[in-house]
Hints:
Blueprint: H1 25-30, E1 38-41, E2 44-47, H2 49-59, H3 70-90, H4 93-102, H5 107-129, H6 144-158, H7 167-176, H8 180-185
Antiparallel strand pairs: 1-2
Amino acid sequence: xxxxxxxxxxxxxxxxxxxxxxxxxxxxxxxxxxxxxxxxxxxxxxxxxxxxxxxxxxxxxxxxxxxxxxxxxxxxxxxxxxxxxxxxxxxxxxxxxxxxxxxxxxxxxxxxxxxxxxxxxxxxxxxxxxxxxxxxxxxxxxxxxxxxxxxxxxxxxxxxxxxxxxxxxxxxxxxxxxxxxxxxxxxxxxxxxxxxxxxx
Length: 200
């Protein structure tokens, strides 16, 4: 939304407070999966990042996030789905809680779990962008792939994943973090971020 210069109202959903605000009846009526994000636009409700980004890109076509070439567009979707369906779930709060409760994983074991699967995922992503990257994942213009890479990298760093071997992805992430729209969207710059982690 920052990249497309869209006005929006940010409504925080705390995933831990009171057992998780995503499980409230009010939120479940919007998002039965009890996950974030959820978009409400013109009284229409959408969840899941991929669906939201594609919808916004078609409704607000300025600064398009998908190439016009159909094969390249499908490759961008492939990149996003590799993160959405493989990388993201291994560090999902629900998954980590289940590992903690049923498998008795402590923090170290949870990090080792995330590190193992993350390295598998990032290797695949690195191999894909070897053929497509410019300044960003697909050439010199931002695409949805970059919007998915940035939070995946944030999570990887949070759980101490060794990213040394992913030089192309590292350079792209570094460039993304210098862009104003990514800085505005950074987790530490949100209104509900704890004061101790807020960026200056």
